[in-house]
Design brief:
single chain; 216 residues; alpha/beta; Rossmann fold; 5-stranded parallel beta sheet; 11 strands; 42% helix; globular
Amino acid sequence: MPPTDSYHTIQRRGLMMVLSSPSGAGKTTTARRLLESDAGLSMSVSVTTRQKRKDEVEGRDYHFVDLTEFNLMVNRDQLLEHAKVFGNYYGTPRGPVEKTLSEGCDVLFDIDWQGTQQLAEKARDDLVSVFILPPSWRELERRLYTRGQDDASVINRRMEKASDEMSHWAEYDYVIVNRDLEQCVAAVKEILHSERLKRRRQVGLSEFVNGLMQGK
């Protein structure tokens, strides 16, 4: 009887990759580059009580809800994590993420350290966390002004918050200093590739190896 290839019995459970950084350090641009180049990766769409900006699309950028609905989602345990940031509430819907992971696909998160801590408490084995640092304080401030999204008062608030955010760097699995965007994106891609090969994420691997050892 000819040998059969049982490699197809190995499946992979998806992972949750978190990118965190102070505002302006590059996580959003890095996330966009990853999504553009990797079909097996999708963005987690958060719910928020923040007002929708003119260029944002419901369901693509965020799910926009009022505070009452947000609190109901928290009480029903429908959020994997949630936090208050700059006066607004943000959270990650549980259902879509768990469905994607079970299908063997990966989910990308653009959240802060508070959300990352909550994900680690609920699903540590599925989590891969990356913290992105700016190369200098002055460069961080320059990037915030250059992107032109906020006025001076908001930028000052973001800079004041940056030090607290960066103090949590040691809680993350990986830390990247974003001196060059292309190198930063390449580093995150390497992390994602390596984490996908982790033994614990390859469902059915033990059975496959046992089959090999039995000559199958």
